[in-house]
Specification:
The protein has 154 residues and is mainly alpha-helical. It has a domain of 83 residues. The chain is 86% helix and 0% strand. It is flat and about 75 Å long.
Length: 154
Amino acid sequence: MRQRTLRAARASCAVIGSALTAVGVYFLLTTEPPAALVGLVVWLAAAVLLHDGVFAPAVHLVNRMLDHGSRGLPSRAALSVRILFGVGAMLTLVVVPELVAQARPHVNPTILVGDYAVRLAAVWGVILVVTALVVTWSAVRTHRRFVRRQSTRG
């Protein structure tokens, strides 16, 4: 595409996005009571603090640990470990609020009836087993390639 066409497309996307944002803010301000807006602002501030203060440093730390721990692994195995850990972390983020809600007393006994902690532990167990299988399979495959190369050089 030509540079001029790309600039026009970007500008139109910016205009459309800004217009849709303005419409959303208008409806938010005209339909919600002030108490709900204060609650929304508090929730958004907490989300930013939680992301920047907890999640981002934790992801950075885990990436550093995975970089250090997967140095001897082939790149596909290291990528598989990262993907499996990411899936487990996302599932944990989804289940933790349910665990907290389950620990609090509630009026309706038919909600949150599952044993979320056991299920989360089972998922992490499966993730660990699959990770071990992937790493083992990758190590065996890499060793076989190495042996084949050595035998053909001989």
